[in-house]
Amino acid sequence: MWTLNLLDEALAAQMRPLLAGCTTLELHGAPLQMEPLGSHSVENGLQLLLAAREEPASRTRLWFRTPCAFKQAGRYAIYPQEFLLLQSLVLHWNTAFPDCQLSDPDALDAATQGFIDALNEALPGQVEFENKNASGEANNCGTIVNGFVSEGVDLIMANATAALTAAASATADIPILGTSITAYGVALDLDDFDGTVGGNISGTSDLADLSKQADMITEWFPEAKKVALLFCSAEPNSSYQIQEVATCLANKGIETKEFAFTDSNDVASVTQSAADYADVVYLPTDNTAASNTEAIANILVPAGVPAICGEEGICSGCGVATLSISYYDLGYTTGEMAAKVLTGEADISTMPVEYTNVTKKYNKTICDDLGMTVPEGYEAIEE
What we know:
There is one protein chain. By secondary structure, the protein is an alpha/beta fold. Helix content is 44%, strand content 17%. The chain is built from 16 helices and 15 strands. The chain has helices at residues 9-20, 45-53, 67-73, 83-96, 107-122, 138-151, 161-170, 184-187, 210-220, 236-250, 267-277, 287-290, 293-303, 312-318, 327-343, 364-369, and strands spanning 2-4, 24-27, 30-33, 61-64, 77-79, 156-159, 176-181, 201-205, 226-232, 255-261, 280-283, 307-309, 321-324, 359-362, 379-380. α10 links the parallel β9 and β10 (255-261). α9 (210-220) crosses α10. The two termini are 30 Å apart.
């Protein structure tokens, strides 16, 4: 059952035949057959519930707030949590409505799915999940976590830095496992972080070795003299990465300069300044950059300035190369840690933060546009 909340009837009229013609969706790599059961126009929640009860065969429900909400904030709710199912529907939507593109499910969704899959495999039928999405709003994290604490959940998985800091502030007793966290020491303001947080917190990190990222710059561009460090000043993890990479490059005799945007509004102007200065741009793992790769690419590529990126999502939009991790695998590792905590096999206070393997990848399209030769040992990012 597709439940659509659209802006007007004209758009709804366009969407209905699209969904009716969507007879197959890809779910975990396998085709899922879809059968149209009917169409209902409802004006309120009660009518929606009544309509749903008329279709007892329906099992999967997707709730789209509005196309504009998707475009502006990438928000959605999906039941069950099948990001691959949504991804397949997004492809259908984007083909039909190229001027109103929906965002693909991001790395955080992949990490969540990996976490769920790992726990279901380790403890089949024994774990009940309550998945709450802050919808990209950091302020929502505190409300959600406080609800978990009130309910007395057995474990909290905090996906990304805002969720982790909110959870850490809300409870010192319930075990907390972070994932998609770049730097735990920075996120939790730990002066003496040595790889183990201690207390009731541990998890996994999405940080690729920063010294190796600096090495990539000299591997790809041995003649580079100036590197622009492009990042969002409002993200502490980004500042940490920039400082570390700057130190590594300084040891190689390469001049660096920071170019910081405060939010999406000044990404283009700051990127232009970076392009005017540098031989190469470095972009860390940065949420604001990840949301503005098209704007960054529209400046860097025509200027002929390549970018080395901290993660695959950013690189696929505006970079030439990266050290890539699988966020699904990262979440899966977190789920394996959770199983050990829940069964008493491990004490979370002594569990070190874990990392996942990295893969050298490059963006074929941008490399071709810039006429670049790819070093050995890199694989192309899937387009």
